[in-house]
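hiii so um. not sure if this is the right channel but i have a protein structure encoded as tokens and i wanna go backwards to a sequence. like what aa goes where. can anyone help
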């Protein structure tokens, strides 16, 4: 049965309108500077962003400036200050690498440009209609305010020379086993000090696991905003767990590392035997860069792996909104996603759905032989979602009050 002439005309008009919209973005976005506010604490990520800068310079004559942050909240504060000063169109932040908690804050204060990411040509490669991971952030609908950039899950790794896998010397595979293992191997484990993202991720993983057996009425509070009424009750199991764990940690829990990179160095220096990351491919990438020994092995906890997608967003008052959209679309391209996922580049998992790609594009992601230190395929038996973003502040304030120590 043929397509009617009216349907053909409608489809043609839709195609032209869609094409002309993106052509307008390309025309307006070329030959500009884009200030990308993103965490600057990992040299491999910084090097990847330098590669992105060379690509968009050649493609669009855009000068991409990586403004290196120690915490994303610095960018949030800047945009909030600009809004307070009625600077609604000449903002200094064009694009920001954002996490769920900061997305919730910026959304609450109407600091983000809306309905742009769902118009990116490459957004369709994430299969958004069947993939809520790219349209929700910590349970909050993104409403076109964020473009997905990478995927991550909490992955543990250990030095197989220190933990040989024999019956009495195996890595822990549940939170409770971790507590017992750390007591039996004092000083061989630690976690980064909050508000470091990775440290907070460990605490959120622990909190979710500790409530596995809680009554549904209490467990469901993790998906609701933290309040004065529910905070003490929900967080009490976490404090009890940490009171037991901290004396067994590196430096007896009196000092903490500042980042995942510093924790990784302690493993490399053989001070720690067990650590974790929020991106499994980072481990073989670090081994191949000689940042970790070849004896490193990765695994996922049996009781669950905290998992999420990370995004980029454009502030509502960004000076170069069209240019920022060109950058975000390039970050979602198969070329950029495959480059980012290479173990020796960054090792951050792609957000693209392979079935949406052409065979040529799929080939970009093929790894002939997985590295021995890589997380084995299908290791993650159970993924668990992040709690409501308001719990980040609640955990951080409670942690600081109880355990706040010098770096």
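sure thing!! here u go:
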């Amino acid at each position: 049965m043929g397509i009617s002439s009216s349907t053909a005309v409608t489809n043609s008009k839709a195609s032209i309108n869609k094409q002309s919209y993106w052509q307008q973005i390309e025309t307006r976005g070329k030959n500009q500077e884009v200030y990308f506010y993103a965490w600057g604490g990992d040299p491999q990520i910084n090097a990847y962003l330098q590669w992105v800068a060379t690509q968009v310079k050649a493609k669009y004559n855009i000068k991409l400036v990586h403004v290196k942050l120690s915490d994303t909240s610095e960018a949030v504060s800047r945009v909030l200050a600009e809004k307070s000063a009625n600077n609604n169109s000449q903002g200094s932040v064009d694009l920001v690498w954002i996490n769920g908690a900061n997305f919730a804050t910026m959304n609450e204060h109407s600091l983000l440009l809306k309905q742009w990411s769902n118009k990116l040509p490459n957004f369709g490669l994430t299969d958004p209609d069947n993939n809520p991971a790219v349209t929700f952030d910590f349970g909050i609908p993104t409403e076109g305010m964020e473009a997905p950039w990478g995927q991550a899950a909490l992955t543990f790794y250990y030095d197989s020379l220190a933990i040989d896998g024999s019956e009495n010397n195996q890595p822990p595979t549940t939170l409770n086993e971790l507590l017992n293992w750390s007591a039996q191997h004092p000083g061989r484990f630690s976690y980064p000090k909050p508000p470091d993202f990775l440290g907070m991720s460990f605490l959120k993983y622990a909190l979710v696991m500790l409530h596995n057996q809680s009554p549904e009425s209490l467990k469901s509070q993790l998906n609701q905003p933290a309040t004065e009424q529910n905070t003490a009750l929900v967080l009490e199991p976490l404090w009890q767990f940490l009171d037991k764990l901290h004396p067994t940690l590196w430096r007896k829990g009196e000092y903490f590392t500042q980042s995942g990179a510093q924790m990784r160095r302690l493993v490399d220096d053989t001070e720690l035997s067990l650590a974790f990351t929020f991106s499994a491919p980072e481990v073989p990438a670090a081994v191949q860069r000689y940042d970790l020994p070849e004896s490193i092995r990765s695994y996922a906890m049996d009781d669950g792996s905290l998992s999420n997608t990370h995004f980029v967003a454009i502030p509502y008052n960004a000076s170069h909104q069209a240019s920022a959209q060109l950058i975000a679309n390039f970050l979602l391209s198969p070329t950029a996603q495959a480059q980012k996922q290479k173990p020796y580049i960054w090792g951050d998992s792609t957000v693209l759905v392979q079935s949406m790609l052409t065979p040529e594009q799929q080939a970009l992601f093929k790894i002939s032989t997985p590295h021995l230190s890589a997380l084995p395929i299908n290791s993650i038996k159970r993924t668990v979602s992040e709690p409501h973003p308001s719990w980040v502040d609640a955990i951080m304030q409670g942690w600081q009050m109880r355990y706040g120590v010098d770096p």
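oh and The radius of gyration is 22 Å.
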